[in-house]
Amino acid sequence: MTPDSHSAAAPAAGQRARVLTLSTVAFTLLFAVWLMLGMLSIKIKPELGLTDGQLYNLTIAAILSGALLRFHFGVWTDRYGGRRVMTALILFAVVPTFLVSRVTSYTELLICAVLYGVAGNSFSVGIAWCAAWFPKERQGLALGVFGAGNVGASVTKLVGPILIAAVPAAGFFGGVVPGGWRFIPVAYAGLLVLLALAVWFLSPREDRRPARGRPLSELMAPMKHARVWEYSLQYTVVFGAYVALSGVLPQFYYATYGKQLAVSFHLNEQLVSEFDTIKGLKGDAYTAHLNAHPVVKDDLNTLSKWIGLLAAVCFVFPASLLRPVGGWLSDKYGAARVMAAVFVAMLVAGLALVLPLGLGVWGFTGALFMLGAGMGVGKASVYKMIPDHFPREVGAVGGLVGLLGALGGVLLPLAWAAVPGSTFAALLTLTIISAMWFAAGLVLERKPAAVPA
């Protein structure tokens, strides 16, 4: 019996809802784990005495782990079912996530980042799992709802500073559950255990496996089409750049606009006057200075909360929560039309962020919101085009597109590190190239075929 047959429609509706709900919740939490260093780095960097280069290495290590296996996880999901693969992935992430709370050096944190970073592959699992359960005319919205789990990138930004301030510095149970920033990975590890149980026991036992029994060569066949690589570049622009910016945005706000924000929020005058000095402190010197000035320490925590809120509400939220809207628009008007509008919005925002317009923190935040909105809608339109053109290879094609897109989250930070100040210029350049390829593809599609003589 096929997934869309009339007799299966009634029972399948509830099963589809369970698959979509569980996969979205799983993706949200795993995405939060994958990118948790973005916000925690404000606390971790001075405590462990990390350099900017080491911080980039940690970010890249986690992103690579969540990118390089995306093709494999997509294929495994199509072959063995999303229930099995998602549960196994969640359980794998538990231990390294917990161990982040125990690190005392850069090397230990790097090893943990490589291991817990595997959580990023949950995207390929969820995309293939949901696509197998939903009919074509509803895939855009379903995949968009699932993809809104990208909002997990904002969980640490929003909840992290609040929990860090609320949990006693000594932690609980004599320090078994640590306080400060170390409480966050412990909380995530506990939630991952509960999530694995929910996915295993609440999702449909008879899973859908569209690639069951099909040889790998057949699943790889679509890779010869240029369209697959075009989608990969588009996803680099709307997702890879999103991941990269999510990882560095809190630190970018802190380094570039921290003093201006401290003034805007009427924080302690001593913090404002000493802000540049405090930014340069590391390790024991940083800790000693804050212990000697508790009011400054409290205001720095307040500033961290505001930075997390700004990064979440003005970038991560639109880049994540608008994904279902992008899916719905793609179902209704066609993914290509939606993608064209996305490119226009991102090019306008990119120009505003690159040109010397003297935007200030609030003008910068407005342009960032527009950029995030384009990314949110664009992520859905790219993944709507995949089942439209490759309906039987969603796991493989979606996995490869996700892999290459996520690699953009690695390459962009490297470019930014190599060329200081190139953050948005590099992104704008990439957007222009992708938009030109997209436009050329549309022209070639509409070009009439030659009539034989």
UniProtKB/TrEMBL annotation:
UniProt keyword Kinase present: no
One BP annotation, GO: nitrate assimilation
A Pfam family annotated for this UniProt entry: MFS_1
PROSITE patterns: MFS
Keywords, in A-Z order: Membrane, Nitrate assimilation, Transmembrane, Transmembrane helix
Transmembrane intervals: 20-42, 54-73, 85-103, 109-134, 183-202, 233-254, 303-322, 334-355, 361-382, 394-418, 424-444
Membrane topology summary: Multi-pass membrane protein
Listed GO MF terms: nitrate transmembrane transporter activity
Keyword Transmembrane helix: yes
Location(s), subcellular: Membrane
GO annotation, cellular component aspect: membrane
Predominant location: membrane
Family in the record: Belongs to the major facilitator superfamily. Nitrate/nitrite porter (TC 2.A.1.8) family.
Name of the protein described by the UniProt record: NarK/NasA family nitrate transporter
UniProt source species: Gemmata obscuriglobus
Taxonomy of the source species: Bacteria, Pseudomonadati, Planctomycetota, Planctomycetia, Gemmatales
